[in-house]
Amino acid sequence: MEPLAFASDDAGPDGEGWMINGRVFLENPKSLVREPDREMLRVWALTRTGGLGGTRLLPDRGGILDQAAIMLDALAVMDDQADQLRPKPKARD
Q1: b/e for 31-50, b at 16 or more Cβ within 10 A?
Q2: 31 CB contacts (<8 Å, ≥6 apart)?
Q3: In this structure, are 56 and 76 located in the same domain?
Q4: Is this structure's pTM higher than 0.85?
Q5: Same domain, 11 and 54
Q6: Does residue 74 lie within any of the structural domains?
Q7: What are the residues facing 11 on neighbouring strands?
Q8: Residues 40 and 80 both lie in one domain
Q9: Residue 57 pLDDT class (50, 70, 90 cuts)
Q10: What is the pLDDT of residue 17?
Q11: Domain limits at 53?
Q12: Is residue 92, in this structure, part of any structural domain at all?
């Protein structure tokens, strides 16, 4: 689902709500995102590699071993969830 699908505070893009991973939200799910969540999303976005490989920026100074394990775990969970939401290419016949 594209970000613009959440732009309205009214009904979902199809008028029936928002379907995300098989769950229907009658209220705009963006209302569930609190300020600390937005900050975590900002940190996650800054650490993205863009799918091209290479090294990612780290939230704290230093190398990978200087990072808080809980932060690295959280970033890994967010990477996994983003991957699950990304449309998969259709197999060629």
Answers
A1: eeeeeeeeebeebbeebeee
A2: 9
A3: yes
A4: no
A5: no
A6: yes
A7: none
A8: yes
A9: confident
A10: 80
A11: 34-87
A12: no
